[in-house]
């Protein structure tokens, strides 16, 4: 079983999610107006090479040229199996030098018996050397009749302008999770793989827009599962993701500002081979699920009731910022540590712009609450206005300015909660908060009045 190969599309209409490309190519085949050079740009595993092969089949099919190659004649089957002499596939990642291109130039006019239209499919074309591009350009300047080059690339900006200007360009799109999920369920149905929808979605998310990767993952998962049905749990186990409920516990701890309860979760995940980025992905997904629930008007789980949409959106932003910086940092662990601190300290320490223009001051809003709304002032009339911060609907945080106030607020808390009917939390006093001090020092942040 090799699912990506078995389910590789053999017709334009089966290529998922690239209608704008396949329709234009089918029309070109119908009208006989085939360009000498095509540039297929797009992420990996979204059908670039497959589309090139179908184009080649359309040109060489015994019934062709046709937008609907039969898939059965000798030309079609040889092209599908990658052993046609008329269709030359090369991988510029390994064949990138001038000699490889010279060989093309020498043979470009030769059409093997039975061949109708020679097609060169150059994968990862941006990897060709400059000399190779120059040699290729000479061929492209006087394109021989009945020869077409398809340059497939994930990095079109690396293709020289001179080559790009001679090519007809198509942009292949990454596939949505939804589209991949549906296709996985379809394939699983045909293969009698008992695949749960939620598990399919998890695999699709992991494939990041590529159908080929998604199908490989499905295959791995089926082998891994053995006799078990393919559930979310099995998929998470395969991907080395901790089960979803552990992320809820992490979020609960973060909401309580208890960073120390988060660390064991993280450590056990890292021990069992989950990468840092995978773990954050899981956490991001858990936050996203909660946001979705709120948007759909569903209640949050009991232990996460205190979270508001504003709080969750702020967390989501911090996690997305982690994702951006993660790819560039040499200190991934430190980055994660700070991200978790920011999450645990929200909203006491409001997020600052993680990436800010050079020289711009980093600031944190004051720990003191703002004047607040009239309603807040009315509810907490006996407290100074600037120690109360409204966290969201019916949820307030008291920010003591010193230890004395901290103890006073602790005593007041229950009474205030029952009087106002709201959730009241009390932040630690500044001097008891070494983590806050450390965070401010390390990140070079200043506390300022808002
Ligand atoms: Zn055919």
Features of the shown structure:
10% strand; three-stranded mixed sheet; 4 domains; Helicase, Ruva Protein, domain 3; five-stranded parallel sheet; Rossmann fold; disordered C terminus; 10 strands; 450 residues; alpha/beta; binds zinc ion
Please tell me about this protein's structure.
By secondary structure, the chain is an alpha/beta fold. It folds into 4 domains: 169 residues, P-loop containing nucleotide triphosphate hydrolases (Rossmann fold), CATH 3.40.50; 63 residues, Helicase, Ruva Protein, domain 3; 97 residues, no CATH class; 83 residues, GMP Synthetase, Chain A, domain 3. It is 49% helix and 10% strand. It has 19 helices and 10 strands. The strands form 3 sheets. It has a 5-stranded parallel sheet, with helices on one face. A 3-stranded mixed sheet has the order 7-8-9. Strand 3, helix 6 and strand 4 form a beta-alpha-beta unit. Helix 9 runs parallel beside helix 11. The chain is elongated and about 95 Å long. The C terminus is likely disordered. The structure holds zinc ion.
Tally of helical runs: 19
CATH class of the largest domain: Alpha Beta
Bound molecules: zinc ion
Strand content: 5-15%
Structural class: alpha/beta
Number of domains: 4
At CATH level 2, the architecture of the largest domain is: 3-Layer(aba) Sandwich
Distance between the termini: 62 Å
* Main sheet: strands, sense, barrel: 5 strands, parallel
The CATH homology group name of the largest domain = P-loop containing nucleotide triphosphate hydrolases
> What is the percent of helical residues?
40-55%
The counted number of beta strands is 10
Radius of gyration of CA atoms, rounded to a whole number:
29 Å
Q: Give the neighbour order of strands across the main sheet.
A: 2-3-4-1-5
Averaged pLDDT: 83
């Amino acid at each position: 079983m090799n699912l990506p190969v078995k389910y590789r599309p053999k017709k334009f209409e089966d290529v998922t999610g690239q209608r704008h490309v396949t329709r234009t190519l089918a029309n070109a085949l119908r009208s006989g107006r085939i360009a000498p050079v095509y540039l297929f740009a797009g992420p990996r595993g979204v059908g670039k090479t497959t589309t090139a092969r179908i184009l080649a089949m359309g040109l060489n099919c015994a019934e062709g040229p046709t937008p609907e190659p039969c898939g059965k004649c000798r030309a079609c089957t040889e092209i599908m199996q990658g052993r046609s002499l008329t269709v030359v596939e090369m991988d510029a990642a390994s064949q990138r030098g001038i000699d490889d291109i010279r060989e093309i130039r020498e043979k470009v006019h030769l059409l093997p018996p039975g061949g109708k239209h020679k097609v060169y499919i150059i994968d990862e074309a941006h990897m060709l050397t400059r000399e190779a591009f120059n040699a290729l350009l000479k061929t492209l300047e006087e394109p021989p009749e009945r020869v077409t080059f398809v340059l497939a690339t994930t990095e079109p900006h690396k293709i020289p302008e001179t080559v790009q200007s001679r090519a007809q360009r198509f942009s292949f799109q990454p596939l949505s999770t939804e589209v991949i999920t549906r296709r996985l369920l379809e394939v699983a149905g045909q293969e009698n793989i008992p695949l749960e929808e939620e598990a399919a979605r998890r695999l699709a998310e992991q494939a990041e827009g590529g159908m080929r990767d998604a199908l490989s993952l499905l295959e791995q998962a089926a082998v891994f599962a053995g006799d078990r049905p393919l559930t979310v749990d099995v998929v998470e186990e395969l991907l080395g993701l901790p089960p979803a409920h552990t992320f809820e516990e992490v979020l609960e701890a973060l909401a309580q500002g208890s960073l120390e309860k988060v660390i064991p979760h993280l450590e056990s995940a890292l021990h069992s081979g989950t990468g840092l980025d995978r773990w954050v992905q899981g956490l991001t997904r858990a936050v996203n699920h909660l946001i979705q629930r709120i948007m759909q008007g569903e209640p949050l789980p009991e232990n996460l009731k205190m979270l508001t949409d504003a709080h969750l959106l702020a967390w989501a932003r911090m996690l997305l910022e982690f994702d951006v910086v993660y790819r560039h940092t040499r200190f991934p662990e430190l980055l994660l540590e700070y991200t978790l601190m920011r999450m645990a300290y929200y909203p006491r320490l409001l997020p600052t712009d993680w990436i800010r223009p050079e020289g711009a001051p980093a600031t944190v809003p004051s720990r003191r609450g703002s004047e607040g709304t009239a309603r807040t002032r009315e509810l907490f009339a006996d407290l100074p206005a600037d120690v109360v911060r409204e966290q969201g609907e019916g949820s307030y945080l008291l920010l003591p300015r010193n230890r004395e106030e901290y103890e006073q607020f602790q005593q007041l808390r229950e009474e205030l909660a029952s009087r106002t009917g709201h959730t009241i939390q009390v932040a630690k006093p500044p001097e008891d908060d070494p983590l806050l001090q450390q965070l401010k020092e390390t990140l070079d942040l200043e506390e300022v009045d808002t």
